[in-house]
Amino acid sequence: GEDVEQSLFLSVREGDSSVINCTYTDSSSTYLYWYKQEPGAGLQLLTYIFSNMDMKQDQRLTVLLNKKDKHLSLRIADTQTGDSAIYFCAENDTGFQKLVFGTGTRLLVSP
Amino acid sequence: ETGVTQSPTHLIKTRGQQVTLRCSSQSGHNTVSWYQQALGQGPQFIFQYYREEENGRGNFPPRFSGLQFPNYSSELNVNALELDDSALYLCASSLDGKEETQYFGPGTRLLVL
After folding, report:
1. A3 φ, ψ to 5°?
2. B28 vs A82, residue with greater confidence
3. Which of A4, A72, A101, B81 has the highest local Cβ count within 10 Å?
């Protein structure tokens, strides 16, 4: 079945780059997503990538997709304390737009 | 700001009771999905509605049911509440023709005692 895995925790210093990794199992996924969740809040869509792309850049965010290895990463350049949150990787079910989420990576940015 | 609102923000119920959670989406967002997020976990898909018809369901029992209305609002109903139903319930909507982009509301936090 579908499964998405992420490391649980990442700690970086302000100004450094952060790289959050994710692996997924459903090779038929059309889109892969990164969502951000701040404490007590809902999910904010950060970016998504179509499965036939290798890379997508959006301001400080860079998404890399290795479809052969089913590996997705999110790089945040110049990480700020406001980036501290939980980041979820998700894949879609191609039958309909159901999202399958990982357990989330908690990013802690220290000054 | 996603344009998706949910009510109430918090709710406390006791085991065995019934609850109704509400979601309101933007005009043109005919697809709405509901997710359950237990503490420390990622969201789990409950079901999806399109133009008032259920068109997909996750591994949740029939006591989880939903409704979608023509005015872009929807409901999640849970009967016979169990302690494990305590979670953050999220709804997400997407615009016709852009179903790959789901926008989430802030969620309703349900506590079952």
Report:
1. -155, 140
2. A82
3. A72
Q: Kindly report the three-state secondary structure assignment for every residue of chain A.
A: CCCEEECCEEEEECCCCEEEEEEECCCCCCEEEEEEECCCCCEEEEEEEECCCCEEEECCEEEEEECCCCEEEEEECCCCHHHCEEEEEEEEECCCCEEEECCCEEEEEEC
> B35 contacts in A (CB within 8 Å)?
99
CB contact under 8 A, B102 and A42: no
Which residues make Cβ contacts (< 8 Å) with residue B71, sequence separation at least 6?
A: none
Q: In whole angstroms, what is the distance from residue B62 CA to residue B79 CA?
A: 9
CB contact under 8 A, A96 and B56: yes
Query: What digits encode the pLDDT tens for the residues B52-107?
Result: 999 889 999 999 999 999 999 999 999 999 999 999 999 999 988 777 788 999 99
User: Cis peptide before B8, with omega less than 30 degrees from 0?
Assistant: yes
